[in-house]
Amino acid sequence: MSSAYPEFRVARCTRYRYRYSECRRCADACPHQAIGLTDEGAAVDQVRCRNCALCVSACRTGAWAADGFKPIDLLRQAIKQKAFSFSCAPSGVAADAIVPCLGALDGVTLAYLARRGIPVTLHGSQHCGQCEHGPRGAEQLALNLEAMELLRQGMDEQQRAGVELAVDAQSAGTAPRGAAFAGARRQLFRRFVGRGVDAATGAAAPSEAQPIPEKAIRAGAYAVTEQRELLHIVCRRDEDQAWPLPLHDGLPAMGLSLSAGCTACEACFRACPTGALHIRENPSDWALLFRADRCVACGVCLEVCQPRVLDAQAEFDARPERPERVLHSLCKQRCGRCDRFFVSSSPQPVCPVCHDDEDAFSAIFG
Q1: What is the secondary structure of 168-235 as a DSSP string?
Q2: Which of 68, 88, 155, 206 yields a CA-CA distance of 20 to 30 A from 282?
Q3: CA-CA distance, 327 to 227, in Å (whole number)?
Q4: Range in 118-122, 141-145, 177-181, 217-221 the model is least confident about
Q5: Entry pTM
Q6: What is the DSSP letter of 273?
């Protein structure tokens, strides 16, 4: 296992894409308090870091990567065998593959092996109580096993018949199945279900929402993670049949809905790190579209939406074959002053540029 520290790819981080983001998945997952967060991303403290790779597993956008832990390489090794076993490095137990921590094995990777009918055994979880990575590692493992089980339930009977995943018996008292990772669950509630909380605490109504400052959103290249691409394979169906999947903090997938009140500010599109949200324009129309097969459930679009009209669906169709969906569409208007086309949620006599010019002129000359 490499002693190199995890690499942070800043352009993929939601805290970089949106400077007011409250995402702290990596910091919550780290057992050693080795990750510091800022409004420009995150940084690892090499003195504290123990290379457990839990930050790599927890991050939805692939902002963290580790040379000593590459799930795709592990899969290439596993699919060549009829059965496969993992063990964590701290336990010292022999296995086909040694990983820094069992909690770093995400639910999608385990579900992929299950779909291929490869029996998998996880060794070393009985060591979590004495391990320097526990109980965070044990809790993350329980979350990932829960996510794997949700995906397994969507498989047909023939695929489920080949599923076999064994965990050391002693692990039952250390990482109970379905155990919630408290920090991640709190974050999930705050970011995905917090719309009702906003209303109860008197958050701004859609008409009173303030626009996002331009410098609050930083541009970056789109990137879809390997884990999300692997989920495409796991959830693919040959027949035209839905694959219902509930929102879960251990899965890089989410469905979106948009209620009335969208201001067409495009902040969600600009902050999205994967291109799941994008804009389609022609001379007469504007539309906000959602590609579910690119969404990794990072939730930055929900944070950046000031009218609070964008929401995560409690359950969605996880099939990757679905076409992109129009969330909002508007007809373009023509400015009565500069004659340019523009988009607005309500009829306006002039475009925002000309309106800003009028405000600036009034502020200077009265």
Answers
A1: -GGGGGTS-TT---HHHHHHHHHHHSTHHHHHHTTPPPGGGPPPPPGGGB--------HHHHHHHHHT
A2: 206
A3: 25
A4: 177-181
A5: 0.82
A6: S
Within the chain, strands assigned E span 7-8, 35-38, 41-44, 64-65, 84-88, 97-99, 120-123, 165-167, 244-246, 256-258, 277-281, 285-290, 310-312, 315-317, 325-331, 333-334, 341-342
The first and second tokens of residue 214, run together, are 């331009």
pLDDT band at 361 (very low <50, low <70, confident <90, very high): low
- Please state the rounded mean pLDDT for residues 115-120: 89
pLDDT of amino acid 240? 80
Which of 103, 90, 102 has the alpha carbon at shortest distance from 181?
103
Task: Please report the sign of the dihedral spanned by the C-alpha atoms of residue 140, residue 65, residue 163, residue 81.
Answer: negative
Give every CB contact of residue 129 below 8 A, 6+ residues apart in sequence: 135, 138, 174
Q: Measure the CA–CA gap between 192 and 105, rounded to whole angstroms.
A: 24
**What is the token pair recorded at 79?**
């699919």
- What gap in Å lies between CA 50 and CA 137, rounded to an integer? 12
Phi then psi for residue 35, to 5 deg, are -115, 125
- The residues that bridge with 342 in the sheet, in sequence order, are 333
Please tell me the distance from the alpha carbon of residue 5 to that of residue 44, in angstroms, as a whole number. 8
* Residue 271 contacts residue 301 (beta carbons within 8 Å): yes
What does pLDDT average to over the chain? 84
Domain ranges of the chain: 182-225+250-334, 335-366
Query: Would you state the structure tokens that stand for residue 216, as one six-digit string?
Result: 């609050």
Region of residue 289 (left: phi > 0; alpha: psi -120 to 50; beta: else): beta
208 by Cβ neighbours in 10 Å (0-12 / 13-18 / 19+) ranks as: exposed
Burial call 304-340: b when 16+ CB within 10 Å, e when fewer: bbbbbbbbbeeebbbbbeeebeebbeeeebebeeeee
| Nearest of 120, 129, 115, 114 to residue 99 by alpha carbon | 120
